[in-house]
User: Fold these one by one.
Assistant:
Number 1:
Amino acid sequence: MFKKGFYCVLIICFIWCLILCCGIFLAPFDPFKTDPSLSLASPDNTHLLGCDRLGRDLLSRLLTGAAPSFLTAIIILIISLCAGTLVGLLGAFNRNRFGQFMKFITDLLLSFPRSIAVIFIAGTLSSGILGSSFALCLFLWPHFARITYAIANDALQNDYIKQAKISGENTFRIVRFYLFYEIKDQLLITALLDLSAVILALSTLSFLGLSSQPPLPEWGSMLYENRNYLVSAPHLLIYPTLCIFISAFLFNLLGQMYASRHAQGRINL
């Protein structure tokens, strides 16, 4: 039953990702075209989710805004994952001054309150989505570095890896054929859980005006634009909020279910 539930959630996440990535091609109207006669129009047969204060179709803007919200989060996560994994492995293999220095940098960045630090860096840079992406990457990669370092450091003490070193295996082969299988599951679980956090963080920064800027239809900026119409046109805030919630919920659920599946596999072994 659990296995069926996991694959069901995986399929739903895959379909949702396709919608997010191809949203710009599914938009029924031009997301930038304004029509004052449709200002704050309620949902109907033509405009399924209604229109915003400038008469722009809300569904088209939600679908078009999926790419800045989702693909940017994916890029941030990939950069942070690669950088953190590399730093963690370097620290595990080099226990000299370089390794200690990288460990100190990792601990230093992890000691900052991430939300406040990201807002401060993004606000200081004032470069839109690039500045917010840099700020998120800066404080996200130490998370992966700490996990990689802890697992790799323990794995390097195993007899089979010591034997591989004695046999003349180089560092790349040890990482590829031994350490990779030790760290891949934990990194994947962490990445899935962090993906929902990055989506929420990007939306929050856009709402604060520190990421995507109008007229780019990003979910967080759409909430900021329509914040004054909560009573008169609540659909303008409900639907972007639902998109953010569904994205964060699905990837968080998938990460938790994969973690449970991984733990059950370890127990069965």
Number 2:
Amino acid sequence: MVDEGTAAADVLASYGRFTRRPGLTDEEADAVEKEFGFSFADDHRAFLAAGLPVGRGWPDWRDGDRDQLRDKLAEPVEGVLFDVAENGFWYEGWGPQPQSTADALTMARPLLLIAPRLVPVYSHRYLPAGHGTSGHPVLSVMQTDIISYGANLATYFQAEFGGKPIEPGRPTVTFWRDLVS
């Protein structure tokens, strides 16, 4: 039986649109996880092991600029903080909204640091982190505008690159699932 990550790699490869380098070895994936403080979901890791897509929009976990990768990992949290500061966003699970923007940011920042980590797949599309997990929907994340863009990696690639209709999945991780529109 083909695992979900390998199946997703096959779907992406079938389009012939992207350069793929040899996949990440277990040692390379372990080093990335240690360096950046997260663990890939099992299907995401298997996808990257099957072949590492490179080029515009793809995070290059092997040779990419480390600061850019850190920035990409921080974008979901920074986007929420932007909406707290500039658009009055407040997540009801955080309790009563503080009166001042400064107090709201002070309260939101540590709460966002305990939200499940999102890991970039392509451009502003993300998967939740976590060894022992797979089959998460791919989330399109732009500040607090979050959309399920595919029930899993394979259906995401079919929608993003194959022109098929989006098959949204039910988001699986706390906080982020509550923001999905």
